[in-house]
Amino acid sequence: MREEDLDWAVYHGIPQTGSITVEDLAAATGLEPGAVTASLERLEHYLLVRRTGDTVRLLSIQESLIECQCRYTADDLPFVIENGVVRAKKRDD
Prior knowledge:
Blueprint: H1 3-13, E1 20-21, H2 22-29, H3 33-45, E2 49-52, E3 55-58, H4 61-71, E4 79-82, E5 85-88
């Protein structure tokens, strides 16, 4: 399975509200715990989930945007917000 497909399955196995343990997530998706952990590391790197101890939860759009702003400076931020619309920054922006 490609990493993208694995990440998609893991992401959609996490409840929309609340959190889930890595063990329960592995059981719910039918994936090996090691594969789930590797996927969660990627999803956390891309600011889509937050792991706390053994549990994981989805980040809201607002949380993800704030985390992204904290990680990057204004010059290398990968998005812009114009008139309330979030869009990917072009290389020449």
